[in-house]
What does this fold into?
Amino acid sequence: MRLMIFSDIHGNLEALENVLRDAAKRNVHRSICLGDLVGYGPYPNECIELIRNVKNCRCLAGNHDVAALWEASPYGMSKAAKEAILWTMDQLSSDNKDYLSSLPDRIDLDEMTFVHANPYNPKGWRYVMDRKYALRSFAATRSRFVFIGHSHRPLVISKKHWLSVSIEPITGDTEYGVNDSRRRIINCGSVGQPRDNDPRACYLIYDTRKQTINFHRVEYDVQKTVEAIQNANLPPVLGRRIVKGT
Ligand code: ZN
It folds into this structure.
């Protein structure tokens, strides 16, 4: 099976369309979206509707998705994020709100666990980028792989023995072999707002037969999204971030 995993679209329709087009050329059988369909970006309804129409795709809820439903307060977020959430609340159709509220916070499938942020407290939304929270995440599941998003940075954390892990940031298009017995936490990066100084959209494909994980970076018309951010009167800093990939 070739499984596409993507996350953190954040209302960036241009990026999402290009990622789905790229994946369609690579023979994907199923896909899983790790959440944050909305927030920051100018096309929340369009992104939800596009994802709902992807065949064999399951989707999780992220922190921005639940904030847009007022299930979590947006007031702990950064000023720009909060403003975008309040704007998104006004935009969402009731049908799309129902869809977001139906999304689970964890999916377990064969030897894989999927969450937006972490598996030990999915709705606590803490980032998993260091040893402490990696060990907590490994302890919270028996799965061989835990796929996460949320930090917008592609990353592989491997469990070596007992209390030791290796943390490898992933840059550019990378093929990562997993043909061993190690347990791993894999961050698939972000489609709509990458934060690793590479503005290209990011997603991955896990090939279960070949035991490879391919991270793909996809160019899209960033300027088009920046203009849509301006036209929607969203905070201009959100446009600057996607230009730089921060
Ligand atoms: Zn996000």
Notes: The radius of gyration is 17 Å. The pocket of zinc ion is lined by residues 8, 10, 36, 62, 64, 150, 152 (CB under 6 Å). The first helix runs from residue 13 to 24.
